[in-house]
């Protein structure tokens, strides 16, 4: 499900979607109101609504709006496959479903259904009434068969015969042919035909091929690009699939299945084999959503509901076309004037040689002092990727250790590790094969690495390893020097061009020793509890943050300056939220930048009037995590991989690193200032849980785009700066 969009990548929803297993119920000590949390499911749907609002925005480039429509569809698919599926699984099996708002699970499911129905209808309207007419006007026409003339139909008939018909597989349903398995997220045609000889009506299902383009191109007319949905073309040639039969009805439908993976790690001897078996079972998960075109007859709908065991609440009636995720194809069209302006990342000025003719030496650059990277404004390829490639080729490098959570299909990172192993270096790769929806790809990479002689491990039983770490051990003048990278994003060169992330390159010996101890814990049986510049989950990260939040509250009570600023993808953890509430009650100003889910209620008198929550969505996916504390004028600032969710703090290995260079602390504060500024375009979270977009001032003038401003800031830096 790889796309050309940061928000539409298959990792996005997985990044934001916690699961229900082992989620702790909120701790209520009686001092805070019971309704202090916003429902996380509804908050996730509100996040996807913000994505939809971008698609509806006429100020955005047209093909980007089409892209956001596809992103919305892809996100919602994964929400159903993971979060709704997990909720239904626990309800069906009678397991407890703790919710952070204390409501009955069936009520939660009902609210999800109501909101999802509203959003899917709005999504369809956005395409049919806003984006499609604009595409038509721009010369990109998505036609229907009914609107075509005879000449076009003749061309498409030939296309159907030569390129489509041989691939199709109609499946009859009768006593000799049981109702077929409907694969998850596949687009299908339900067909009712009548035998003119017996007058008997039969049912058939036809899967729309996924290995053909979703939109079939028509001959260009007057410099216009014209397309017809593949399913529309097939539907109007059903007579050739059922010769001699009379086609009575045909309708589109689509099924979403439970595709979450559940493995009892404590009960398996081989995690790799157990995961592979579970991935095979994933295909046959129970149906949890049925999307149908709004013209489907009741007889066909009744049959589908009966065979799929779907309830009325799980049926979504929508206008054709279904599965607007297919618009990713349209968004890739080569029409630069309808897209965001092209931008080329710069190489960090701290990694550029003083003289342009000099050859970059990344180890020499890092040895001069910590380097803070900001992607995609600064190039991943000329920083992190080059760091690992030079390490692989450097004869003085003795060892490389790295975590791999998600990476691209042709990853130069993986190739660098292979090259290093083949060159005789000691290489350790911790591959997280349980990264949701990337499991199969990671299994493949793990085996490729093992064949090359890389030591591959899969982390700790019961925990996912989500931290982004790389450690290079280099021999310099008879001593060993540690070069480290700690980031907020994956080692993925493709998504690094689309995800906003931070990373630290350092030769600091304290960080190097911290990472050495952490890698020993991940690959062996070491139990290390002491880290100096790191906060590590699951044992100490939440406790470390709570300690720092409480310290700010104590400072405020003592009349001293205080402040907390956090930037995350999700803010769900009740213990962290309650600590922020108490800090607010003590008078601490709290700023939270959150991309996705937020269960915190800001601006509630007596509870959170000192808390502000903002959200920024745009061209790039805001993915970095930052934790900043005033600390009596000596700021403590951390960056890393952890969101404020139960899974990150309790069921994952996460790591935050403390920044120490004054200029880095200043840069982070400027970054947070930009995101929280009222002159910056963003969404503001209201106390009742409604997100309100603020993108224009009182005079109607567009507010500043944070990502555009960041590009200007980074590109203005000069070579040789330090």
TrEMBL record:
UniProt entry tagged with the keyword Phosphoprotein: yes
Catalytic residues as annotated in Swiss-Prot or TrEMBL: 466 (phosphohistidine intermediate)
Cofactor(s) the record lists: Mg(2+)
Catalytic activity, reaction form: [phosphate](n) + ATP = [phosphate](n+1) + ADP
Binding site for ATP: 75, 499, 595, 623
Gene Ontology CC terms: polyphosphate kinase complex
UniProt-listed InterPro entries: PLipase_D/transphosphatidylase, PP_kinase, PP_kinase_C_1, PP_kinase_middle, PP_kinase_middle_dom_sf, PPK_C_dom2, PPK_N_dom, PPK_N_dom_sf
Annotated region (Disordered), positions in chain: 703-722
Gene Ontology biological-process entries: polyphosphate biosynthetic process
Listed Gene3D superfamilies: Endonuclease Chain A, Polyphosphate kinase middle domain, Polyphosphate kinase N-terminal domain
Binding site for Mg(2+): 406, 436
The organism's place on the tree of life at top rank: Bacteria
Listed EC numbers: 2.7.4.1
Domain PLD phosphodiesterase: 618-648
Enzyme kind, highest EC tier: transferase
Post-translational modification: An intermediate of this reaction is the autophosphorylated ppk in which a phosphate is covalently linked to a histidine residue through a N-P bond.
Keywords from the UniProt entry: ATP-binding, Kinase, Magnesium, Metal-binding, Nucleotide-binding, Phosphoprotein, Transferase
Gene Ontology molecular function, alphabetical: ATP binding; metal ion binding; polyphosphate kinase activity
UniProt entry tagged with the keyword Kinase: yes
Role description: Catalyzes the reversible transfer of the terminal phosphate of ATP to form a long-chain polyphosphate (polyP).
NCBIfam families linked: poly_P_kin (TIGR03705), PRK05443.1-1 (NF003917), PRK05443.1-2 (NF003918), PRK05443.2-2 (NF003921), PRK05443.2-3 (NF003922)
Similarity comment: Belongs to the polyphosphate kinase 1 (PPK1) family.
Name this protein carries in UniProt: Polyphosphate kinase
Protein's organism: Protaetiibacter intestinalis
Source lineage: Bacteria, Bacillati, Actinomycetota, Actinomycetes, Micrococcales
